[in-house]
Write a structure and sequence with these properties.
heterodimer; A: about 220 residues; Rossmann fold; four-stranded antiparallel sheet; 7 helices; about 30% helix; B: about 300 residues; alpha+beta; 2 domains; 10 helices; rod-shaped
Chain lengths: ~220, ~300
């Protein structure tokens, strides 16, 4: 499902003499289909970069990332859109489209996948109802609170039941009840067969929902369970 | 729950927000200006083509023969010098007609230069014969020599040389029109490309999000290209409509040069006088502008998207 083979990522400095910045160093792990992992580590340890590599929005500068059977170094460009539609991403900064309503934001992955409009409507309504956003269907992102925006972003990431779900601090900014609902939703997706990886700072949350973890420190994988 | 408030995907669903990013003001205005210039260039091309045809087929196929002392007996004593020249001309290969101009016609021709009636002039005026060729290759130097030998003093004037120069001028005008058309096309493509890049800069984040959610390059490029084509279509239509009366006026002014008289600029006269491509301009220009807009945007967007991982 997801395999990292001696993966490293470094950014070159802009000047001729400036040193390169190593963000990830020799990361190796293998996640089976349908697995669950917490992704832990302090700020700047490389969690978001790791998720971006899994999402194929970044290419490693060393080693190989294999996601859903597609190796990053040799995957054909024409295959990428279909691959991405099988990966749901909850971004730390939500990344909602500001000119679309909550409904249209959540519907976007289904529409891009060519789902019939009648089915899109039913699925999105159900998802927004579950997220407690029924009253915000036509609200624009700028009219939503931070928590509501986050829930819309989560709904968009999970609406198409992705095979791989990557969540970057999905409960940051949510109250305890909403956080628990989100974690339950993600665990439910995992139970239904999705591979779920959740990056978080929240140790209490991990304690409440114990599970295997990948732990990063200064770009190095220090623990993999 | 009211169905009214739920936005089912409308036909013009604008997930990239392009109605704002590719605004409907600047692009149509610039494309309209380009379409206007293109219309002038096309009209210039068509006009020059008509002039070339007319000058090379008209003046280029006529000769003028002057016969001094036309009423005198010819050397053989079989008739007048004028009738002798006419006979020789009509017997020559390539000559279709050889008609002597009447006194009235000569008067009309000479009055601007001599300012008096021919009969009042002290100097003798030669007869003038207008000769029309039938397109066959004629040996004009030989014909001129034969005329001069049989009827001394006869002068043959060949119009082909200056008609050829006018034809060259007209073809140069055609070439210039073609170059203008090419430049207008390139500038239009550049305008569309810049507008696309500007729209892309404004919607970069939205494009990246949609791309990340699984949109193909073709899908994103199609969204931009459709919007650009619609704006270019509008601009082309505006430019074409505005150009129509201007081109019509210029064509009517140039018509006498092609031997066509347009006594009154009425719609009926215009309809019969102007060629069909002229009337198709308001249709051809928007379609061409839309095509340029569509293809330019497709290329611009796909090149940019190929840089993404």
């Amino acid at each position: 499902m997801v395999r990292f083979e001696s993966v490293s990522l470094s950014y070159r400095g802009s000047g001729a003499r400036s040193a390169s910045l190593d963000v990830l160093l020799d990361v190796n792990f293998d996640l089976a289909d349908g697995s669950f992992r917490w992704l832990l580590g302090p700020s700047g340890s490389g969690k978001t970069t790791l998720l971006r590599l899994m999402n194929m929005s970044l290419r490693p500068t060393g080693g190989e990332v294999i996601v859903l059977g597609a190796p990053s170094g040799s995957v054909r460009r024409s295959v990428m859109p279909r691959l991405r539609r099988q990966i749901g991403v909850i971004f730390q900064d939500f990344r909602l489209l500001p000119h679309l309503s909550a409904f249209d934001n959540v519907a976007l992955p289904l529409r891009l996948g060519g789902r019939p409009e009648g089915q899109v409507r039913a699925d999105v309504m159900e998802m927004l109802r579950w997220m407690g956003l029924t009253a915000k269907l036509v609200s624009m992102p700028e009219d939503l609170s931070g928590g509501e925006r986050q829930r819309v972003a989560i709904a968009r990431a999970v609406i198409s039941r992705p095979r791989l779900l990557l969540a970057d601090e999905p409960t940051a900014g949510l109250d305890t009840i909403q956080s628990e609902r989100v974690i339950h939703l993600l665990r439910e997706l995992h139970r239904l067969g999705s591979t779920v990886i959740i990056a978080t700072h929240n140790e209490a949350q991990v304690d409440r929902h114990p599970g295997p973890a990948l732990v990063l420190s200064q770009g190095t994988l220090v623990e993999s369970s | 729950m009211s169905f009214r408030i739920i936005s089912l995907r409308p036909a013009r669903f604008d997930e990239l927000g392009l109605r704002r990013a590719l605004a409907d003001r600047m692009v149509p205005f610039l494309v309209a200006a380009m379409a206007f210039l293109a219309a002038l260039a096309v009209a210039g091309w068509m006009g020059a083509a008509v002039l070339t045809r007319n000058w090379e087929g008209g003046a280029g196929s006529t000769l003028t023969v002057q016969v001094p002392r036309p009423g005198e007996q010819d050397a053989a004593g079989s008739g007048t010098r004028l009738s002798a020249v006419q006979s020789l001309l009509l017997a020559a290969p390539g000559v279709a007609t050889a008609r002597a101009l009447s006194d009235a016609e000569l008067n009309t021709l000479l009055r601007p230069w001599l300012g008096a009636d021919m009969k009042d002039l002290a100097v003798p005026v030669p007869a003038v014969i207008a000769v029309h060729m039938n397109g066959e290759l004629a040996d004009l130097p030989r014909l001129a020599a034969k005329l001069a030998e049989s009827v001394p003093g006869t002068i043959l004037e060949d119009h082909a040389a200056w008609a050829g120069r006018l034809g060259t001028l007209a073809r140069s005008l055609q070439l210039c029109s073609g170059l203008v058309l090419l430049i207008v096309t390139l500038v239009t493509a550049a305008v569309i490309s810049v507008a696309t890049r500007s729209g892309l800069a404004a919607r970069r984040e939205a494009v990246l999000i949609v791309y990340q959610l699984g949109a193909t390059d073709g899908y994103i490029a199609q969204r931009f290209a459709s919007r650009a084509a619609a704006l270019a279509l509008a601009g082309g239509a505006i430019g074409g409509v505005f150009a129509l009366p201007v081109v019509f006026t210029l064509t009517a002014l140039a018509a006498p040069l092609a031997g066509v008289q347009v006594p009154m600029m009425t719609a009926k006269a215009a309809y019969s006088f102007l060629p069909l491509p002229f009337w198709l301009l308001p249709v051809i220009l928007p379609v061409a502008a839309a095509l340029i807009g569509y293809l330019t945007t497709q290329v611009t967007m796909r090149r940019w998207l190929r840089q993404l991982p």
